Amino acid sequence: MISAIAHKELKIYLRSGVFLAVAAALIGLIVMSVVLSVQRVTAFEHERASAVAADRTIWDEQGVKNPHGAAHFARYAFRPTPTLAAFDPGVSDYAGMALWMEAHYQNPAVFRRAEEQGDTGWIASLSPAWILQTMTPLFIFLVLFGAIAGERESGTLRQNAALGVSPRALAGGKLGGAALSLGVVIAPVLAGALFVAAGAGGTVTLEDNALRIAGLTLTYGVFLLAVGAIAIGISALCRDRRSALIALVSIWAVSFVFTPRLAGDIAASTHPEPDAGAFTAALQKAARGLGADAEAMAALPSEAMAEYGVERMEDLPINFLGYRLQKAEEYAYDLFAEVYARLGAVHDAQERILSAASVISPVIAVERLSSGLAGVDRLHQQAFIDNAEAHRRVIVEQLNRDFMIHGADASGAAYTADENLWRQIEDFDHEALPFRAVAGSYLSSALLLLAYLLGSIVFVRWAVARAQKRVIQS
Amino acid sequence: MKSITFFLERRTFLFAAPGIALVASLFILGGYAAYSGKSQVARITQAQVDYAQTRNDALDAWRDELVEIESAPGASAPAYAARPMSIRKPAVAPAAPLGDFAIGASDLLPAQTELSAWVNPADLFSEYEFANPTLLSIGRFDLSMMVVLLLPLLMIAASFDIWSAERESTRARLIAAQAGAVKPLIWSRLIFRNGLIWGVFTLVALAAGLAAPGAQELSSTRLANLAGWIGAAWIYGAFWFALIAFAVAYFRRSEIIAATLFALWASFAFLTPAIGGAVSEALYPPPSRLAALSEMRDAKSEAGKATAELTKGFLADHPEMTVSDDDVPFYYASTWLANREAATRTAPILRAFEESRQQRQETINLLQYLSPAVIANRALLSFAGGDVDRYRAYQAEARAALADLSERIGPAVVAKQRLSLAAYDAMAPFAFTETTAGDKARDLAAPVAFLLALALALGWGARRRLGAPLEKILL
User: Fold this and answer.
1) Average model confidence (pLDDT) for chain B?
2) Domain spans in chain B, listed from the N-terminal domain onward
3) Interface membership of A112 toward B (CB under 8 Å)
4) Which of A275, A458, A461, B158 could, after both became Cys, cross-link A171 (CB 3.0–4.6 A)?
């Protein structure tokens, strides 16, 4: 019986002008977004490659100077854009893409593309993921609002019930038919979008791309199936097509449009970030850490003498200024970590509110999973920042050690180095996090989505049974 | 007829569940948006006050040192006291007069910096990117967002079946038989329901507008911007009113009217801005900040290398400046010279970047005519002061102020001398020039007039259709 109903539903949908129009619009939108997104990501990677090459040249050709002066001139780390960003850009437009790896200072990542988006950037940003997360549910609602309400209006729901069609069979058949007809449209488009995005030319392919693509397919499959089940369930609860349409569009507006923004606003108000001025002051304080610690400063000469087994400063086989500069760096590591950890804790608290809101707005959970799988969420951004900081420490230590060792005979900062040293400094190379390593962070979102699917299936069965009961009683 | 319509609407809508839910949700959401905006502005204002206060205190201490040195010309002063390179002036763009009505670009672009000759204009804005990118990507909830996205949706929900429901339930013939004409009934109902939505929202907006946030005063500037903001919102509302009336007049079935209006809403509010933004980015890509960064680093590096030559050149151009034998390190002068040279070398890069950005923006501005929501968004952000243009204007003014500071102190820095107290006092503190509400209105006149014309055309179309013979409207 289920397959017979599903087959009949499939036929009806494929003959429906509304369905075909909606399907054509959806396919057109996704194809357009894929083409534009791939072009965008390819351009970003081209820009990054040029910037990396230019940074290398500028660094190598900086001229003769003290190595610590070079550490202040420093190098940049540029964030690579993974290929799947063409499918879901995640937070990549709102997170800094370049990080200055300067001596004494752990800078924030700078240059956010969203700053160039103009005044409409906040409204919407076209990507295949955005279409699947926000517009596809609306399309599904517009196609399915009459699924049961239409049957009730035309009297066929009563006929079905009189024929002994069980609620389970009707709900299963309706859902199966909707899944088949929408699946015929969405599945190839989703697969195509992922395939094209994953192969975006000249960009960075993550090592576990196949796993991530499988995860994205599963995420959107589960999400859209749940949306379809909710649509049929709501249609069954409503007396007529008009009420069903209004109810579904209201659910879409509340759950998919306004709740995420409202939750974001509540999160930002409840856990405000420190003001930029205050935060910069905290960073500057961390940078001056050793200089401000008179006791630690006073202990440095004896520490240096003990480390190098001498009893007088003039017997040190190193340049003490270089030694002190390196110690200042090391002293600041924990201080910077503490300052950024405080900021990270605020961001975590904000995202906990978002996670709580995902109970009434499942699209928040989908966004989290999708951007995580695409390698473009805050967690992946943090990995880039952490890697850049690790590289900064290596670079600065390499330069300070050269100053210490080779500048031993020079007084103060008189020692200089040249291109031979600069060429020894390696380029920043960022390896994205393997998804398995961070999968636990997305578990709650995945479970919530799964619960949504199961709940929506139970809901649709209950709503259809209720509709049948009412139509028989009336 | 009018009193009967009002009586009916009162019973079937205003005091029924939909009307109560509508008014309550408008009050709750509007109240929250206003509260949230005010809290944000109060937080920003307090942070800026603290920021400016810290720097102004340091400047006062610096000036006291200078006064002391000038008052005892013969006495030897500490080498680093009251040096012009130590001047660090705050340059802050205060919260916009109506900043609590739209967050806009305020959580993305910098609104405070420190003017100091240690930095060159290219690096003036740094270290402000601390906001959570996840929240930034989601967007915020404010009064302007309510107007652009929520109010049209509420208008559609309240009005789409104003006549079709009567027609579908066959009450339409009864009403026509009793009243003789249905046109006044349809218009009255449309006006009543949408007037309720806009009346309640305007009350919330007026209350929010008249209660200035934090320590701000209710200024004439705020009132002028509030008038502009409400005017723009009403014109956008008029467009949706006319569009709904048009759909009600021309389409027969409730679900067709609702589906059409919702689809148009989604297209105007989401699809057009999203597609327009993506297409314009593909056709007119924003200038590469990474490329500009590399160019600027190169320019700064070359400027640094040339410092010795620059010093000779500067002193050759200004032989009157005798270099004093103060103990102040020479890197003060070399930094100033290197920064001046870097500013000169990076100015064309910054200019090209801004021109490219401007050209792109002009092209994108044409796209606003494809979506009333984009026009409304632009107008509301502009009056609220959350628009990107305001922050770009602030950046330009701050860079100009930095150039001015650098030029004023440069000769003294290179000559290893101090500024005179009179020269220091002649330097005005930074004050951001807000665009007046009148200038904003002039700037927005064309798109807003277009929106109004669209509303009038749709309203005229609806009126014409509803004026058709009764049998046409009833069938």
Assistant:
1) 86
2) 2-474
3) yes
4) A461
| ipTM of the modeled complex | 0.92
- Lowest average pLDDT, out of A298-302, A313-317, B194-198, goes to A313-317
Task: Read off the pTM.
Answer: 0.89
Residue whose entry in the numeric block shows the structure tokens 């009179």: B422
Distance between CA A274 and CA A278 in Å, rounded?
Answer: 6
Q: Tell whether B135 lies on the interface with A, counting CB pairs under 8 A.
A: yes
Q: Which of B42-51, B203-212, B346-355 has the lowest mean pLDDT?
A: B346-355
A68 contacts A400 by C-beta, under 8 angstroms: yes
Q: From the CA of B75, how many Å to the nearest CA of chain A? A: 31
Side chain identity, residue B306: A
Q: Quick one: B326 exposed, middle or buried, by C-beta within 10 A (0-12, 13-18, 19+)?
A: middle
CA-to-CA separations, B51 to A207, B54, B57, B73, B89, in angstroms, rounded = 46, 6, 10, 34, 11
| pLDDT tens by residue, B211-261 | 876 666 788 999 999 999 999 999 999 999 999 999 999 988 887 888 889
Long-range contacts of A352-359 (CB under 8 A, 24+ apart): A353/A263, A353/A266, A353/A267, A353/A270, A353/A271, A354/A260, A354/A263, A354/A264, A354/A267, A354/B134, A354/B135, A354/B138, A355/A444, A355/A445, A356/A263, A357/A259, A357/A260, A357/A262, A357/A263, A357/A266, A358/A445, A358/A448, A359/A448
Q: Model confidence at B409, in pLDDT bands (50, 70, 90)?
A: very high
Chain A and chain B share a number of CB contacts under 8 A equal to 242
- Rounded to an integer, the average pLDDT of B88-106 is 92
Contacts of B44 in chain A (CB under 8 A): 275
Type of residue at B245: A
Return the percentage of chain B with pLDDT > 70, whole number. Answer: 92
The pLDDT value given to residue B322:
46
Residue A275 to residue B40, Cβ atoms within 8 A: no
The answer, yes or no, to whether residue A387 has pLDDT greater than 60, is yes
What digits encode the pLDDT tens for the residues B171-193?
Answer: 777 777 776 678 888 898 899 89
* Beta-carbon-side half-sphere exposure of residue A345 (alpha carbons within 13 Å): 7
Distance between B207 CA and the closest CA of chain A, angstroms: 21
Q: Are the beta carbons of B134 and A93 separated by less than 8 Å?
A: no
Q: What residues form DSSP beta bridges with B115?
A: B89
Share of chain A above pLDDT 90, in %: 53
Phi, psi at A374, each rounded to 5° = -80, -10
In this complex, is the C-beta atom of B145 within 8 Å of any C-beta atom belonging to chain A? yes
Q: How confident is the model at residue B140 (pLDDT cuts 50, 70, 90)?
A: confident
Site from A123, A238, A239, A428 to mutate, B interface, most B CB atoms within 10 angstroms: A123
